[in-house]
# Entry
Amino acid sequence: MNRRVIKSILKKKFNQWIETIKDEKVKRAIKDNSIITGGSIVSLLLKEKVSDYDVYLTNFKTAELVAGYYVTEFNRLHEGKSTPTAVMRIEENRIRINTQSGGIAGENTPDSQYQYLDGRPVNEGDEYTLNTISEALGTTDATDAMDGDKLDAETIEKEPYRPVFLTDNAITLANQIQIVTRFYGEPEEIHKNYDFVHCTNYWVAKTETLVLQPSALEAILAKELVYVGSLYPVCSFIRTRKFIKRGWHINAGQMLKICLQISELNLMDLETLRDQLTGVDTTYFNQVIDYLKKRQEEDKELQVSVPYLISIIDKIF
# Structure
C-alpha cells in the first residue's frame, strides 16, 4: 500500500474517532498533540488487516486530560451497574488507571457481558482465557460469557468509540483505537520505549504527515525482527511468537540482545514481573501473579524462587 493511501486511511480513522469526543478542549488537545505509530502502519504497508491503531500523546498534560476524559466516560457508561468504578491517579508523572478488579467491558454483541481480567480463581484460568480481549472488542463471539452487566444495543450504536479496556498503560476504545498513556513525548522519545525497529513509522495528527523510517522499511521488506531495546524485554521476548507465526524471522543475535536486557531485571519481585508482562497473555499471567500475592499475604515468610514460580506457571498454564 502506498504512502498516499496509508495517509488517507489514518486520517479517516483518526477523524472518525475524535468527532465522537464531546469535550472540545480534549478534542483540540488530541488534534494538536498526538501521533499514530506502531503495528498499524506496518499492517497497512503489507496490506494486512489492522488489529488496532496505537495513539500516543506528545506531552503529559494532554495524556492526563485524555485519560481523565475516558475514565469519566467509562464510569458514565456503567453508572448504576455493578461494574467497578474507574479511578485515575498520578504517580511521579505517570498516569495510572485502576478499577476494583481491572475493567474490560466485553461487547462482542448487544448481549455481551461485562468481564473482569483480575481476581479470577486460579482454577478458572482455562475457561476464562477463552474470552480474549479481541473477542471483547467485537472481533469474534465469546466462547463463554461471564457474569456481569450488559450495555444495550442503542448505547453501543451511539458510542462507537466507547472505552472498553482500562489499564495502567493504555485505554482501549471500541473500533480499534488504543490510546497509550504509559509513555508520552515526541516520536523520538516514544520510540525509545519500542522494541522492534519495524514499528517506528508514524503519522502526525496536527500536520497529517506520514514519516516512514528507512530502517523500519528495510526490516519490513525483509520481515526481519531487529531489536532496538525496550523497557519491557520480557514482553518483547514473548511477542516474538506472534511475529514468527506471521512469517517474520529473528536471528540469534537479536534474541541474545533481549536476553541480556532481561538478565538485568529482578523477576522475583512481583511488581516488576507484573509490569514486564503487561500486554501479553494477560489473563494467564494475572492468574500467576494474583495467586502468588495471595500466598504471600497468607504466608509472610514465603520467598518466591525460580523453581516455585515455575511450578505455579505449570499449574496455571
Remarks:
- The first helix runs from residue 3 to 18.
